Amino acid sequence: MTNSDKPATPLTYEELSELVKRHESVIKTLKTTLSVQQSKTRDILYSIPLGLLVVNGQQRIEALNKLIEEFFGYQTEELVSKKITELFPDLQFLRVNPKPVPVMARRKGGETFPAEIIVNEFDAQLNFVHVQDITERSRLDRLRQDFVAMVSHDLRTPLTSIRGFLTMASEGAYGPVSDQGNRAIDRAQSSADLLISLVVDLLDAEKIDSGEFEPDLQETTTNVVVDRAIYASQAAAKGANVEIDKEVTNDVFWADEDRVVQVIVNLVGNAIKFSPAGSIVTISAGLEGAGVVFRIKDRGPGIPKQLQSAIFERYRQLNQPKETKRRGFGLGLAICKSLVEKHKGRIWVQSEEGKGSTFCFSIPLMDENFRT
Q: Confidence band (pLDDT; 50, 70, 90) for 324?
């Protein structure tokens, strides 16, 4: 008989008692550790700066945090085991979605308010639902929409009329004008143009924000859009004593031609504003990889590296030396960025202080499926 075939020696009472004690100690330690971890997890969940619901597969609420109580006016015990429709009357079933989904929420007293929810799957039977009250954001959105509507209807038409009147006056339609009068008319025209530009930018920004704008894709060429942009920019270039040059290969691509021209005109306008008199703004365009790339190069003061990403933010303007600073509203580059991204492209800047800037954007070549 081998050692392995020998029967095991029975444990004595003392040995068995010691083994039970060790097991009990391990179990106690595990319970303490589990309790501590549960407490930490609960503290983390309750400290999240969003309302949190834990909802089971039957669409019933199993847990919630303090913000949910504040949002809806319920105590925790009033909501546990209740259907999700208690809080979201139009939401019969939760669908996992990591992106915010707008919903209408209902407080305990019956009052409704706009909210956003994000649904994440915890396991096969539980979902975490993050809730955000967006009442204030909705109010601000309405105020913004009302403001843009006012700008559109109450400012654009009279500004256009004023601009037309000033043009006619400068051309002598109302009689001879002295040199001093012409200079005054020029200043008034410049101010009217500035305000009209702001109105157009505000309306474009609102269209993009509201999702109303989608590019009208059609076949065009780099040469066509660059020539159109140069034609539209010649007056500004002449007034600033800046020359516009182009280096373009005539490549075919699909895009919303008017909007690509708008982007180039905006970038060329900025280049002209910050270029010294007698300098050249160069527009280059051509096929690179899977798309066309446009570059607008100036000989201006350049942009500090740490600020180059910020210039595409709305209402963001960089401090420039006094002799080169020009008026603006900080909307143009943000709109350019949105228009380029609507074409599934990207926009960026290459710049070094004292050596000018090159603004670049790319438009990918579109396949037949995207065109439709």
A: very low
Backbone angles phi, psi at 337, to 5 degrees: -60, -45
* CA 350 distance to own-chain centroid: 22
Alpha-carbon distance values, 223 to 62, 78, 347 (Å): 63, 68, 19
Task: Break the chain into its structural domains and give their ranges.
Answer: 12-45, 48-133, 137-210, 218-371
The string of pLDDT tens digits covering residues 126-148 is 888 999 899 888 888 788 777 77
Q: Domain 218-371: give its CATH code.
A: 3.30.565.10
Pairing status of strand 243-248 against strand 218-221: unpaired
Q: What is the pLDDT of residues 220-273, one digit of tens each?
A: 999 999 999 999 888 888 888 999 999 998 899 999 998 899 899 989 988 998
Amino acid in position 147: F
In angstroms, what CA-CA distances link 38 with 1, 41, 80, 215?
53, 5, 19, 51
- Alpha-helical segments (H) within 103-221: 135-150, 156-170, 179-210
Cβ atoms 61, 79 nearer than 8 A:
yes
Fold agreement between 48-133 and 218-371? no
Cα gap 306→168, rounded to integer Å: 46
Q: What percent of the chain has pLDDT over 90?
A: 27
For residues 59 and 94, the answer to whether their CB atoms sit within 8 Å is yes
Distance CA 80, CA 285 (A): 62
The CATH number of 48-133 is: 3.30.450.20
Q: What is the mean pLDDT of the chain?
A: 81
Give residue 16's identity as a one-letter amino acid code: L
The continuous run of DSSP H or E covering 280 comes out as strand 280-288
Q: What SS3 class is residue 310?
A: helix
